[in-house]
Design goal:
The chain is of the alpha+beta class. The chain is built from three helices and four strands; from the N terminus they run E-H-H-E-E-E-H.
């Protein structure tokens, strides 16, 4: 068991992405239940990943990055995050994007 503790942060871009998806579901598709289910599932998935943020395979991006990206799959969406060291036993899980699986990942991540 690791002694590393992870804090959680979100980029404004993640909130923008999430809002776009939720508004599409609730207003365009008129499915508020699905929008609420997405919000609940995203929150549950992120908080569930937090204790073991680096225990999963990194995403192999075409771009060179300072920190590797990791993915969380939720319904038809993929959440992208990085882990940033903050000290000896502390790291931050920074959630950066949530994209629908039909969106162009290479262009957006």
């Amino acid at each position: 068991m690791s002694d590393i503790t992870y804090s959680l942060s979100y980029l404004p871009l993640f909130y923008s992405d999430l809002e776009e998806h939720v508004l599409y579901l609730s207003e365009v598709l008129c499915n508020r239940d699905s929008a609420n289910e997405l919000l609940d599932a995203v929150e549950k998935a992120i908080l569930g990943r937090l204790p073991n943020a680096e225990a999963f395979e990194p995403f192999h991006s075409q771009k060179e990055r300072r920190y590797p990206y990791y993915r969380i799959y939720v319904k038809n969406y993929t959440i992208y995050y990085v882990v940033i060291p903050n000290g000896r036993q502390k790291k931050t899980m920074e959630v950066r994007r949530i994209l629908h699986n039909l969106q162009d990942r290479d262009k957006n991540v």
